[in-house]
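Quick one from the shared queue. A colleague (R.T.) flagged RHS repeat protein as missing a structural entry in our internal table.

Convert sequence to structure tokens.
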Amino acid sequence: MSLLFSPVQGLFLNNVSRVYRSVLPWAWRSYCICQLLLGTFHPALAQQPTITPAVPQLQSYVPGSPTTAALERYVTMPVSEQSGTPSVSVPLFEVKSRQLKLPISLTYHAGGIRVTDDASWVGLGWSLQAGGMISRSLRGLPDEHETLGFLANRRTIPDAGTINDVLDFRLLQTVAENRLDCEPDLFSYNYPEGGGQFAFGVDGLPHPIPFDPVVIKASLLGFGSQLTITSPSGTVYQFADWESTTIRQRGPDVWHRSAWYLSRIISADATDTISFEYNRHRISYAPTQSQQQVLPIYYMLANGVPTNPNSEGVVTSTSYVETKAVKLFRIRFASGYVQFNADSTKRLDIPSDASLGSVELYAQATRQAPARLIRRFDLQQSYFQSTGGAAPRFNSRLRLDGITESAGSLRKPGHRFQYSAIPLPPRDSYAQDHWGFFNNRTNLDLIPRQIFQTIYQPRALGQADRTPDSAYVQAGLLQQIIYPTGGRTTLSFESNTTDERRKIPQPIKVYSAAALAPSNTPVTVSTTFKVEYSRDVRAAIDFSINCSGTGGWSHNTGGATLFDITDGKDRQIQIYKIAGCETNTVDEHTGIADSIMLLTGHTYQLMAESDNPDMETEMRVTWRDISAPDKYEHYKHLVGGVRIRRITTSPAAGGPTLTKRYSYVQPNHPDRSSGYTPGLPLRYSYRREIRYGVLEEPVIEFVTPGICSFYPNAGWEITAGSSPLGQASGQAVAYSAVSVDDGPRSGKTVSEYSVCQDSASTELPMVAPIDNSWRRGQLLSRSVYQSEDGSKFRLLERTTNTYSLDSRNRSVIQGFKVMAQVASRGSACNNIPEKREFSTGYYAYQNFSHPSYWLHLDSTVVYRYAAQDTTQAPLTTTTLYQYGNPNHAQPTTIRVCAGTADTLTTRYRYPLDFATSGAADTASRGIQALVARHVLAPVIEQQQWRQHDWPLGLTAGTVVHYDGLRPRRIWQLKTVDPILPTNFQPSAVQQGQFQQDARYQEAAVIDRYDARGNVLEQHRPGEAPVTYLWGYNACYVVAEIKNATYPEVLAVLGQPAVDALAGPNPGSAADIRAKINLLRTRLPAARVTTFTHAPLVGPTSRTAPDGRTLFYEYDAFGRLLRTRDEQNRVLSQQEYHYSRP
């Protein structure tokens, strides 16, 4: 459910003169750039997935009359409910070329700020969305390394089942030391039509994760390294502007290509292009630290007695990241360009970089005028400041404070952003929780405190407190957006939680005996108990003495004994004796703790003894009552990051306030969190065997070599680090259910999502984890409730979805991982792999496979409940999706069942559903061309079958013939009665000819296109043709001519004149009208409508077939100011004012 707020409170429109002529009925055609409109706030809930393939239809290309500009649209704020994260988006422009379009926006990710986060050139938490990129997570060496990379060795990946530890030791060592790459890198891609991940398989081809019907081509070697993605629409995305990164620790710099940025978008027919230009520079980021601490536990080599273990010091590794970066400078398209200007001042936080100062939109230069600035956005920025960092750059983070739009000398009131008042720590601070968020703890390192039980006593590794803090995790977060109208949106956050279960401790049984002699007379006190359970029980025994007084009592004695008296023989089980208290000791207390196994069915006696009033002895035996049933409780466990709790919006100053509240609880257990951890439980340590080498003295010094002795089980060591092991996606939490409350008088929506955890292991050799984020978060159900009295809700509608993992497009990413599971210590002679006792078991190794599937929607069921009578059965609509061809992965059958009797089945056929080898006619060659360009989605034939009280029958159908990549003819099925399946011929290509049912009749024809894919002439059978002339670099229609063919128009105007109109310099508006007016006199039967335009702004004139002209005037922001007629009379006029709070 979404809300659309009326924006009229913030802007007053003063209609100076009346409008006496109605606007044209045609739909308003969007221009190449849409301005930043800030008047619609839409915090989206879970979107119901829908699949409806489109069939081409004839359309009008005439621009509608310009309308008064609406109030600016509010910042869009869709909420990813399964993560609890709102994505704040500030739209700047939408580039619209002839066929292609590209939105440009600034987005803010409101999941929390990590201590080590670097701010982008927009600001901390913000990013510029203007194109796309492919980034790489390096695993081992770069895949494209000529001799050692994965692609060079993919056919010889070792088989772990045939490895011999001794014979193959050198191979294992080479892989473990990263001198041979057997792991494919993981690439992440995003572009305007989608995104995902991919990795190279052993076949050398990129495989998308999950399956995506795109074509990915890679040419990674050399300076011309690039990746290309072709989408199912046939649009080509070229990523050829790459940046490289090095992480310096020790030794020489090793650079690798880490990201490829979008360089070019090319339409499927190659007639339209959006291109991207970048500046190159070098960025040095603030160093990051990782830490490690080792606890070795040795056995003494001579007698096998373990040494007393002591942990080694914390070792800190500092990494310096340097990038040869590319920075977006300009986006060019058919009618102009967008320019991104870096600020001239270097940043405080990253001195080698500059911030984004402004974004400008320009109309393309012509012979009459240079490139013209249409609109500009300026960014106001400052810095989050911290104290205590090792260097000034650690204390600063770039902050976006506002955005202001201007055009010419006009400037709109800006957007302002306000953030949490809780200060962030320096970026080198150790005050981090497990996920890297600020927790305000005073830590001396980043290794969480962990206790390990050793042979002698417990030992600790690490000292850090990495628990989350619900208050400080909000440091630096965006909290409020203030709009030019004076309205505002306030964001309220809370800490993420997961549902955890813990066992409630069982009751404790306690038996004790205490003795104190009141007058130097020995005293004995006893207690008897019996153990009656179904099994033995482990008990704790505590013996303590308490000495008090001022004298010397070294002659005093006391103690305690535990007896097993089951058979009357009083066997001593445990005995403690004390010779006396120390001389001149006051308030001395000494205790001893042990544990013992008590046998079921046995009777025991505790006996305490004392012979002095100043010495009390006591023995206590305690154990858990295992007869009590196990009980568990659920609790909300705090995890890292934040989720949205409430969004409050006031569209304008003094206007109404609208609030959405988000609740993350299980629908059937409102006291339990619906959150879960996608990754493995946090673990920071692993254990390795120690093998010790001793170089014995030579028999004859300097003559015979020494003898190397190995001790393969000399102990073990525990290694603890500062980063958790086996984490894949970095997502701290995901939610299986979210409730959104629209207010006490509105209602609420409850959505449930699919659950899937990442696959990982913390055992050696620690194979790279599998990120399953694509398998979770699918909308399973959505229930809409109406509020009845503010506290009770009535169900109105419930929607359920089912999905499946289809193995028909399954692929498997394979690799081989090696890691040493032995720590070699002692003399240098331990590095002799030929010794079997050294080599065997030295390395842990494993083959791994990461599967990728085709995930698709299978069904949607909607239940609608009666408004008043909830006892009635709901009205049910079921939609079933079938996918008959995995090659194009489009739905081939969609069946909609309303109730029990009425069924509508729509069948779709696409280019890959036809065998076009040997294509001989236009229609079959058109399909062949679509397949060759990977244009998979166009519908070639659509059939609609109905079944009610009669048998299944075909009631409607459409066939589209393509010529090249463009629709040429559209056919409609003509029938009065439903056609039985046995009486219908589906379309097919037979012997190179396209065949279709004889009852299809031609419904529309697109007669001609220009070289850029614009329609020049179209008609419906039996109706007059319609011709279009295009101008301004073929971006806008300058004439619509009804009742005249394109050759007739060309015969009047001539090819040079038509080409000049379609070129980048069509002439002035008067020149354009004068050229086209020839048609009015030379083709008297034609109805000619003429248009002129201000590119990227709107139409400037419209001359109707009767010769009357309307002129449109705009302000600097491209908003309609007034409309005049051909006699310069003002027909309408608008004024724009912002209200102020």
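Helices lie at 150-153, 169-176, 836-839, 922-932, 1046-1053, 1055-1062, 1069-1082.
Confidence is low (pLDDT under 50) at residues 1-46, 550-554, 582-590.
Added to the table.
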